[in-house]
Amino acid sequence: MPRKIPMRRCVATGESLPKKELIRIVRTPQGEICVDPTGKANGRGAYLKKDPAAVALAKKNRALERALKETIPDAFWPQLEKAVS
Known about the structure:
- By secondary structure, this protein is an alpha+beta fold.
- The chain has helices at about 50-60, 65-70, 75-85, and strands at about 5-10, 15-20, 20-25, 35, 45-50.
- It contains three helices and five strands.
- The strands form two sheets. The chain has a three-stranded antiparallel β-sheet.
């Protein structure tokens, strides 16, 4: 029997994709926003497609802010853009 592929929904585009094609952004219990390369960090997570267009869309429509229930600092966006490119 083939293994089940975990699917997650991109908060910006709304498409369901395999977890490996997405990047996880997490709000830690301390309130810090960071990119989670392992996908296992503690805190509230949101998934974004590994695509600069999806990052731009998430910034424009505040999808990440809604998903993480936290305002995203401006300094975080360049870090996220570097992680997806």
